[in-house]
Amino acid sequence: MGVFQYEARNRAGEFFAGTVEAHDEREAAGLIRRRGLWVAALHLQCEEAAGAPAVSRWRQQLAGAVAKTPPAKLRVLFLRQMAAMMQAGMPVHQALQALAKSDADRAYQSLLQQLLAGILAGRPLHERMALHPAVFPASLCGLVRAGEESGSLTQIFAQLADFEEHRYEAREALKSALLYPVILLVVSLVALVLMAVFVLPAFAVMLQDLQAELPWTTRFLLALMDFVSGHLAALLTGAALLALVTAALVRDARTRTVLDGWLLKMPILGPLQRASAWRILLELFAVMLKNGIPLTTALAMAADVPANRHIACEMKALRAQVESGQPFAASLRQLTSCPRLLVELLMAGEMTGTLDAMMEKAAAFAAADARHRSARVEALAEPVMIFVVGGMIFFFVLSIVLPLLTTMDALM
């Protein structure tokens, strides 16, 4: 089975480009002709071994890792361009065709062509996006699916573009803030490890010859170095096993739900996670309710949207309660992940019959709260890192300077 890249035209002379999976060129050309297209160019792009989805996923992840444009930036670029074109009245396939013809880098053009090929084959957009998990996470594909099913894909793209742009900018700002402390940490660790391995033992031998007492910090470092050097193989094996067990536990649905629940309880990251998740959910609910989608249907569409599995489980419980006849706001109050102020706002909207409008206001409040908390995390990250690095440097320097002073006292 191989992936063939093609160029073709329809009866109206419109140009199409994309990819198709087939065993050979003849089969690929037949598949393209069934779409009502005349093949202009066809060549093998890549060949995959049958029954090797894991290899395909690994190859796709490797390609995304070495791509010129990072996946997060590709995601922001795609969402913003699709939102702009669909707001101008272009359907999805025409928007993808226009973007595929643009002067973009190879990774972005390949992504657009694969999405376009799926759309022309009659597949939904969210399904084709899900084939690129490095660029489009499952929660984002769930939102696109909800937009397709509710007829509000344009609004969903616009809201996703705003959200992803803010998250990308916040992530880049955090990277910039942590750049200096991380460089300082790496350089300091290298220097201190070299001193602990080569300099400190020499001072220890000298002090033992002088029968001087070593400071506790120096004794601790020497004991640590002896333990690591004596059990290096066991430590490396244990670290590898721990990494494998951790990866397996994270992939397990129940363990992931528990871990995500703990994350929501963390002092700083927990409120940020809650505000970000409920902002997306409330914006989605508001759009679907305005388009005439019943609340129970909206809850069903949004069941798999949250990236946090604990919130996703609570969404399913919320849907079950609403379907059983319970009021939405009263059911929402029982959730541990939803901020109390948002519950009060939605309760007021439900009582006055303006739930969709109140959801927009609650989403705006959650967005502002998420921005403030994100800025707070950025402001705290750099001084905390500097404090940690400074503490490590102080401990190591103290462990080396104190033996020097002890040596000088012993010599005098």
Automatic annotation (TrEMBL):
Record field: transmembrane: 177-207, 227-250, 384-405
GO cellular component: plasma membrane
Cellular location(s): Cell inner membrane
KW Ribosomal protein (keyword) present: no
Assigned keywords, A-Z: Cell inner membrane, Cell membrane, Membrane, Transmembrane, Transmembrane helix
Any single Pfam family the record assigns to this protein: T2SSF
Domain Type II secretion system protein GspF intervals: 78-201, 282-403
Principal location listed in the UniProt entry: membrane
InterPro entries: GspF/PilC (IPR003004), T2SS_GspF_dom (IPR018076), T2SS_GspF_sf (IPR042094)
Membrane topology: Multi-pass membrane protein
PANTHER family for this protein: GENERAL SECRETION PATHWAY PROTEIN (PTHR30012), TYPE II SECRETION SYSTEM PROTEIN F-RELATED (PTHR30012:SF0)
Family listed: Belongs to the GSP F family.
Listed name of the protein: Type IV pilin biogenesis protein
Species this chain originates from: Mitsuokella jalaludinii
